[in-house]
Amino acid sequence: MEPHAPNRAPSPRPPWTTGPRGLGSFPMTDPSLDVTRAAYNDVATLYAELFRDSVDGRPLDRALVTAFAELVRAADAGPVADLGCGPGGVTARLAGLGVTAFGVDASPAMIELARQAYPHLRFDEGSMLALDIADDTLGGVLAWYSIIHTPPEELPVIFAEFARVLAPGGHLLLGFFTTDGDSPHPAEPFDHKVSLAYRLSIDHVADLARKAGLVEIARLRREPGENERFQHGRLLARRPTEP
User: Fold this and answer.
1) pLDDT at 7 over 60
2) What is the CATH number of the domain that holds 90?
3) How many domains is the chain built from?
4) What is the pLDDT of residues 175-202, one digit of tens each?
5) Start-to-end C-alpha separation, the chain
6) What is this structure's pTM?
């Protein structure tokens, strides 16, 4: 059973959001995002049954998320946004690890399932391309397989958003499918079961973070597990406390 705080009413609108309607108060008309949103809306219930907490049963991934939460608590720079939170299981895990966490997802169906499962936490619609979160306010950003459906040419915009919303000393943890170690390509499309997705070179992801002004702390390549097709990449980065 995943840890989470006792049930309580959702808190009033938090100070780190900026728009009048909460997270998601911006145009969400990017064509690739529209396709991905519709696809996840269609499979939301099944997805939640299969992958509500996507690090459960994966010791290395669970350890990374736990270490990320510990770093966020130690830096004490603000709350954590779980971007692309899906049905909310990892958001709840973060809350159970002692950080203030909220979830954002482009799929209304996913957000509704997350709110039903974890009524004590905040979940809102939103896009990583234009986050309705104030500058310099987050102690952490978790993007766990959230960037895999983004066309590679749009990734610099998303990484700039990560850097913008992180407070100095804030941390970023990314999970994604990665290319084979000898692949010359920074991104390779593949037939994800829900929507078109991309495997990303770990070097390429680290370079995107660096160009956005973030400093790499650690990276990990995990071999495919049972019933998995591809290698997995992990990147932990930090926004410097000084320019």
Assistant:
1) no
2) 3.40.50.150
3) 1
4) 999 998 778 889 998 876 666 889 999 9
5) 42
6) 0.85
Segment 151-157 mean pLDDT:
94
Owning domain of residue 179: 31-238
In a domain, 2, yes or no: no
Token pair, residue 147, equals 């960037």
Residue 88 maps to a domain: yes
3-state secondary structure the chain: CCCCCCCCCCCCCCCCECCCCCCCCCCCCCHHHHHHHHHHHHHHHHHHHHHCCCCCCCHHHHHHHHHHHHHHHHHCCCCEEEECCCCCHHHHHHHHCCCCEEEEECCHHHHHHHHHHCCCCEEEECCCCCCCECCCCEEEEEEECCCCCCCHHHHHHHHHHHHHHEEEEEEEEEEEEECCCCCCCCEEEECCCCCCEEEECHHHHHHHHHHCCCEEEEEEEECCCCCCCCCEEEEEEECCCCC
